[in-house]
Amino acid sequence: MAQAVGVNAYGHHSATPYLTLPAHPGGTHLLVTLVVLSADPEVNGGPTADGDPHARGSGTRVRVTAAGEVEISFPDGTRERVPR
């Protein structure tokens, strides 16, 4: 665990996820994190999430394509691709 104050653009009360490995196993690894910022209780574990604070109802999804691109799908059907 690492701790720092005032080191990201999201303000004092925020957290930035990160991964560590004891050693690099070799090869290439693409790691993706999707952060949905919302004050909507439906997105943040509201009634449709049965009160589960870890459930997310935003409908936003992320995946890595076979070509190595990152594809983000939004609830309205819009898709964004980040090329490799």
What is the fold's blueprint, element by element?
Blueprint: E1 61-64, E2 70-73, E3 79-82
Antiparallel strand pairs: 1-2, 2-3
> Roughly how much helix do the residues carry, as a percent range?
under 10%
Ranges with pLDDT <50 over ≥5 residues?
none
Quaternary: single chain
Widest sheet: strand ordering: 1-2-3
Q: Overall 3D geometry?
A: flat
Largest sheet: 3 strands, antiparallel
Separation of termini? 29 Å
Number of strands: 3
Which radius of gyration do the C-alpha atoms yield? 16 Å
Mean pLDDT: 75
Tally of DSSP helical segments: 0
DSSP strand content: 5-15%
How does the helix and strand content classify structurally? mainly beta
Run of helices and strands: EEE
